[in-house]
Design a protein that fits this description.
Elements lengths: L5 H18 L5 H14 L5 H23 L7 H24 L7
Length: 108
């Protein structure tokens, strides 16, 4: 297993920062989702499977945001809030795993 490159470490740190900003109510869900999707696409030394997992979670956030727009609200309901938090926890876990041990199939 190879640890992520310095560039990827910076991208992961930005993901953590954006997630923390959302949790502090300093960022809208749509902005978080689009930022995460962009940052995942910038990862170079992370295994494709890990990137796909992270992209799936960011897409989940984006889908919830689209549902909020459809209802003309920025406030998720109880179910959506649980799904958002689960996705954020999964992203936190993926970032931590990549940082601590690299990912199977990583390349530099």
């Amino acid at each position: 297993m190879t640890h992520p490159s310095e560039k990827d470490q910076r991208q992961l740190a930005l993901m953590e920062t954006r997630i923390a900003m959302y949790r502090r109510k300093g960022l809208y869900l749509g902005t978080l989702a689009s930022d995460l999707l962009f940052l995942v696409d910038q990862l170079e030394s992370v295994a494709q499977a890990e990137k796909d997992t992270m992209r799936t979670e960011a897409n989940t956030l984006d889908l919830i945001y689209a549902n909020l727009l459809e209802r003309a609200t920025r406030t998720p309901d109880e179910r959506e809030s649980r799904v958002i938090e689960e996705s954020l926890q999964n992203l936190d876990s993926a970032i931590r795993c990549i940082r601590e041990s690299g990912t199977p199939g990583s390349r530099v």
